[in-house]
TrEMBL record:
InterPro entries: SCO1/SenC, Thioredoxin-like_sf, Thioredoxin_domain. It comes from the Bacteria. It comes from Nocardiopsis mwathae. Cu cation binds at C77, C81, H166. CDD domains: SCO. This is Protein SCO1/2. Residues 38-201 form the Thioredoxin domain.
Length: 206
């Protein structure tokens, strides 16, 4: 049985993880998952972005029907974002084709001023061409991040090179758009894949 984290507790837990966060400990031994179970803590918001192919993408409606991992980051990120996407790509490779068809990775840029669809498509394709990248207005981006307990911070002066602070956690949502798991930065690909195989079986049984 999954442990349900109350909404307020889930928000506090997620917001505490920032871009400089390292991996944290594994959950208690009573959990079958390597990630942290966050059933009911978050719901995917219905906000429209532009995907890496230049098409409109509603974060909730267009993720429906698939188990979806959502990560906020930016392509100029020096370490956490490329590492997380590489780990996700390795984990997806460990799934069988049927499982891959039912799982989606969505990368939402926290830096839409620089990350246009073409750049994100090129960057994400270096990890997995099936990953979806989303860019939107600063207002919609920050609203989605806030709804999901993800911290985002940008410098006031964004001329030239700059860094964007962002939560380092990956949230996993059910085909109905409800949160199920959270992986902290540094979760190993084989642990992610093991969680996904179990989660997809559970989602299948619903």
């Amino acid at each position: 049985m999954r442990i349900t984290i109350p909404l307020a507790g889930g928000l506090a837990l997620a917001a505490a993880l920032t871009a400089c966060s390292g991996p944290s400990g594994r959950p208690g031994d009573d959990s079958p998952y390597n990630g942290t179970e966050i059933d009911g803590a978050f719901t995917l918001p219905s906000l429209t972005f532009t995907d890496n192919k230049g098409e409109e993408y509603d974060l909730r409606a267009d993720s429906a029907g698939a188990t979806t991992a959502v990560f906020f980051g930016f392509t100029n990120c020096p370490d956490i974002c490329p590492t997380t996407m590489a780990d996700m790509a390795q984990a997806v490779d460990m799934l069988d084709p049927a499982e891959q068809e039912r799982f989606k990775v969505v990368f939402v840029t926290a830096d839409p001023d620089r990350d246009d669809p073409e750049l994100m498509d090129m960057w994400l394709s270096s990890f997995d061409p099936d990953f979806t990248g989303l860019s939107g207005t600063l207002e919609d981006t920050d609203a989605a991040a806030a709804d999901l307990g993800i911290s985002v911070s940008r410098p006031d002066d964004r001329d030239g090179d700059y860094q964007v602070g962002h939560g380092s956690q990956t949230l996993v949502f059910s085909p109905e758009g409800e949160s199920e798991l959270m992986w902290n930065y540094g979760t190993e690909p084989d642990d992610i894949a093991a969680d996904l195989k179990l989660l997809l079986k559970e989602d299948d049984a619903r």
